[in-house]
Amino acid sequence: MNTTLMGRILIVEDTPSEMELMSYYLRESGYIVIGVNNAKVALEKAIEEKPDVIVTDVVMPEMSGFELCRMLKRHPMTEKVPIIICTSKNQEIDRFWGMKQGADAYITKPFTREQLIRAVVSVAG
Description:
Strand content: 15-25%
Number of strands: 5
Low-confidence stretches: none
Mean pLDDT: 94
CATH topology: Rossmann fold
Largest sheet: 5 strands, parallel
Shape: globular
CATH class: Alpha Beta
């Protein structure tokens, strides 16, 4: 795979092992990774860092990934940033709700490296 830097990805994940795994897969594929462990910090980071893609969990303390998604899509600085929801919530209603909040892709845990990279490539254009 091409190792030139392919973009900046903001990961919003409160489970350290999941954050580690996603970061590893993405860095290995040439992406710059910015990791945060809650949605409130993610809002600030998204404006400050201007990532190319945001990957967020759903179930987090204080604010869910669905709420984060909605807020990012309403903010002029982040409204066009593609969002991938990456969650263990694998019901069709969860997927539907995630897309309705503005997510561009939805992948469920456990995921493979290929699924994650494919989702990033598909939304990054």
